[in-house]
Structures are given as structure tokens and as C-alpha cells.
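Postdoc handover notes: sequence design on the structure in folder B. Input C-alpha cells:
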């Protein structure tokens, strides 16, 4: 979970209690999403 600037993002909860990834250096916020690989595994079942 690295930002484009190369720093590690911090996991936080936003005001709606969703998991978000935040870079403290460049203030970039991204909502956490499931990994595509995990979705493929669930679909294969």
C-alpha cells in the first residue's frame, strides 16, 4: 500500500466509517477496495 510519492499509506476510517488509505505527505485519500484476485477466487466458487 504505497502512494505514488513512494511513502506508505495509513489506514483510517472516514466520516462514514469506511476504510480509507491516506498519504500523510501529499494528503492523497483513496477508499480501500477489495483486491481483484480475492474477487476472482470468490467468483470461481
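Designed sequence:
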Amino acid at each position: 500500500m504505497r502512494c505514488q510519492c513512494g511513502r506508505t499509506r495509513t489506514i483510517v476510517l472516514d466520516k462514514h466509517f469506511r476504510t480509507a488509505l491516506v498519504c500523510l505527505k501529499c494528503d492523497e485519500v483513496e477508499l480501500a477496495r477489495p483486491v481483484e484476485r480475492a474477487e476472482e477466487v470468490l467468483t470461481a466458487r
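Context for whoever picks this up: Helices lie at 36-44. Don't rerun without checking with the PI first.
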